[in-house]
From TrEMBL:
This is Armadillo-like helical domain-containing protein. Its main location: membrane. It is found in: Membrane. One of its GO terms (cellular component) is membrane. Keywords: Membrane, Transmembrane, Transmembrane helix. Pfam families: ARMH3_C. It comes from Dissostichus mawsoni (Antarctic cod).
Length: 712
């Protein structure tokens, strides 16, 4: 059958002299698009229609090609079709239910496609009649709820979720989808939770359920009270929260596995990731640029759960055997569409087998570890807006985690140790390697024993990505990019996360056995970049805010380091690094002093950095003459590190510092107003991607109809 014939719903020609015959269902569609009531001459019209195999393409095309005048003439028939679809969902005959669900999807898509510029009220009126819309949608949602919660076919439940995803994503901006008001009123929240709490249902439908919930939570979330937000925030049922976490965990795990063979791994932890996000932001030439499509839908679901529900934090920490998913590709089933990495749900085998037999040699894991691994992949290459936004979302999730007291306690718990392989981008001079001797440490720690930091390339304006802290420093490469503002926000978010972790350590007097030099080097490299690119950056950005955040991290160590640095030697090393890299701080002071003494828009923020540098400059000005004097007296042209440390230890008593207030205070994360625009665009992008991949044609009508024909 030719493509034209197929689209028109025509049967194969029997001979060249005869006209092609139309399928019966197509003839029935034509009757609906006529002016007359199709049931007028055939009382059994609607019963017969839903016994016919749906021709989605023909029905959608017909709806899209109807002109304005015809719409008014056939509106009653379209309303009647919608009404009878809803009624058919209550039928015992499963084939009728399948065909009704698919017809509803075609109606939603076809009508919206035809009326993109129409108001939501006009679309509602065309679909179901505005005066009857409330009752029609109430009936629809009740029947979908019944199908999702019932003991019926799993294929039917999958079809219901596909229909709901189709309905939610039918407009580019879900907040402009007026039909969703009825989905708010007639909530299916409990049905979604039931799916997530049941092992079997979760395995087959958990991914779609979680994505659907994440999208519904974002419907007009800044404009009105969204019941899905309210309900999600108070969920305290452990099996349900565990189920949601399991779906997210398995989805991220599968993508981590797919990436594992393409990229060498690095050891580290929560704090190592953050350190690298600051100082390793300068990645240079890589042997290969791996293009991995991120799963923003599942990240959004994780964000909403962490942000809205404090009970979900406990799910992040639940340990279980780490699953090593087989790398053998699985053959897609007829009901599963083929979509790019980052857009498909995890395999059913994983979802159906959350419990694995314990092995004494098996490494334990949890959702937080899996997320950190995923974030390390995302943050390797943020050269375009899509990946940069994914990295930004990862950092926002980490921000929410870092602000939670329970999460902080878990991250710093010496009794909860894990081995974490984080990914890093391959470099031309560096061969891929896998460290198999990673020690178990608290997640907030880095497991690195060697100092140093990578410098990674920057976009025009700000760091383009964050890899793991390692041992060498590379040249910075500036490449013109179109999204420097986002990069700046990403860098600041990262520094803020580190500050929040330090505040917790100071408050609870937690002394981490961490190579702090890695962090200090990373922060100094960030300052060096700001200084090197002052002219380019100041044309568009307030770089003084970021500089102030970095300087105040050093002030945090100077003022409160005795409460959280592991040993007195760590304090000595801090002063050593400040003195050793004094030229960076001197250059920063000269720059901010010059800007603050001139009139201009950056005068005030530059002045704040000037004042913040007072103790750093006091340390430099105090110890440098002592070191020079020591070298002169002992006739040493170049002092060793140990000799400098000896000078530092001997001259603490005469050092005078100023007490700075507010260093251990921070502004808590708030989505609105700062992140509202970001999330609106993110949800739009996710909605478009979900709509593209939700195609009921891929559910294989033949498979579905065969299944229900045998049942009937």
């Amino acid at each position: 059958m030719s493509q034209v014939e197929k689209k028109a719903g025509l049967l194969r020609r029997t001979s060249s002299s005869k006209k092609p015959l139309k399928e019966k269902v197509v003839l029935m569609y034509d009757e609906i698009f006529a002016k007359e009531d199709p049931a007028k001459n055939n009382p059994r019209f609607w019963d017969e229609l839903f016994l016919m195999k749906v021709n989605l393409e023909y029905l959608e095309t017909k709806l899209e090609t109807v002109d304005g005048e015809e719409v008014q003439k056939i509106q009653d028939n379209i309303n009647s079709l919608f009404h009878h679809c809803v009624q058919a969902l209550g039928e015992e005959h499963q084939i009728k239910v399948v065909n009704a669900l698919q017809t509803l999807c075609a109606l939603f898509r076809g009508v919206h496609q035809k009326n993109k510029s129409a108001s939501g009220f006009d679309i509602i009126n065309m679909l179901m009649g505005f005066d009857k819309a409330e009752q029609r949608m109430k009936d629809l949602m009740e029947r979908l709820d019944s199908l999702l919660c019932g003991e019926g076919s799993e294929s039917l439940k999958s079809l219901c979720l596909k229909l709901l995803l189709c309905l939610v994503t039918v407009t580019d901006n879900i907040s402009q989808n007026t039909i969703l008001e009825y989905v708010m009123i007639n909530s299916i929240f409990e049905a979604i939770l039931q799916i997530l709490s049941d092992v079997s249902s979760r395995g087959q439908h958990g991914y779609d359920a979680v994505v659907l919930l994440a999208l519904l939570v974002n419907y007009r979330k800044y404009e009105s009270v969204n019941p899905y937000i309210v309900k999600l925030s108070i969920v305290d049922d452990e099996p349900t929260l565990d189920g949601m976490g399991m779906v997210v965990h398995h989805a991220l795990t599968e993508y981590n596995r797919q990436y594992k063979d393409k990229e060498e791994e690095n050891q580290g932890g929560f704090f190592s990731t953050l350190t690298s996000m600051v100082g390793s932001m300068f990645i240079a030439d890589a042997d290969e640029k791996l293009s991995v499509q991120t799963n923003e839908a599942i990240l959004l679901a994780l964000y909403e759960a962490v942000h809205l529900n404090r009970n979900f934090i406990t799910v992040l920490a639940q340990s279980h055997p780490e699953m090593d998913i087989p790398t053998t590709p699985t053959t897609p089933t007829p009901t599963t569409p083929t979509t790019p990495l980052g857009t498909t749900p995890p395999s059913l085998d994983m979802m159906n087998n959350p419990e694995l037999p314990l092995d004494p040699n098996l490494q334990t894991s949890n959702l937080l570890i899996t997320f950190l691994k995923y974030a390390s992949i995302v943050m390797q290459d943020t050269k375009d807006e899509h990946r940069l936004n994914s990295a930004r979302l990862c950092l926002i999730i980490l921000t929410c985690i870092a602000e939670d007291q329970y999460a902080d306690a878990f991250l710093h718990d010496d009794n909860m140790n894990f081995r974490v392989n984080l990914h890093r981008m391959p470099m031309r001079h560096r061969k891929k390697a896998v460290d198999k001797n990673i020690p178990s440490r608290p997640l907030v720690c880095s497991s690195r024993s060697d100092g140093g930091v990578y410098c990674h390339s920057y976009d025009e304006g700000f760091p383009n990505g964050f890899i793991l802290v390692r041992t060498h420093t590379y040249h910075t490469h500036i490449t013109p990019k179109s999204h420097p503002q986002n990069n700046g926000i990403t860098a600041m978010r990262c520094v803020q996360i580190i500050h929040k972790l330090l505040c917790y350590q100071k408050k609870c007097r937690i002394r981490l056995h961490y190579t702090w030099r890695e962090l200090w080097s990373a922060l100094i490299n960030l300052l060096k970049f700001l200084l090197s690119n002052e002219t380019t950056l100041l044309a568009k950005h307030n770089i003084f805010h970021l500089a102030l955040l970095v300087v105040n991290l050093f002030n945090m160590f100077i003022t409160y380091g005795d409460t959280f640095l592991p040993t007195s030697n760590s304090y000595d090393e801090l002063y050593y690094e400040i003195v050793r890299m004094h030229q960076v701080f001197d250059n920063l002071y000269c720059m901010v002093l010059r800007v603050s003494t001139n009139t201009g828009q950056w005068k005030e923020p530059a002045s704040k950095v000037t004042h913040a540098l007072v103790n750093v400059r006091a340390i430099v000005n105090h110890f440098n003459p002592k070191i020079e004097s020591y070298a002169s007296v002992n006739h040493i042209s170049q002092l060793s590190e140990e000799q400098v440390l000896e000078v530092v230890r001997s001259n603490y008593d005469t050092l005078t510092l100023k007490l700075q207030d507010g260093l251990d205070q921070f502004e808590r994360y708030s989505e609105q107003p700062k992140e509202a625009a970001f999330f609106k665009e993110l949800v739009r992008s996710i909605s478009l991607n979900v709509r593209k991949n939700v195609s009921l044609n891929t559910l294989s009508q033949d498979v579905l109809l065969k299944e229900f024909s045998t049942i009937s």
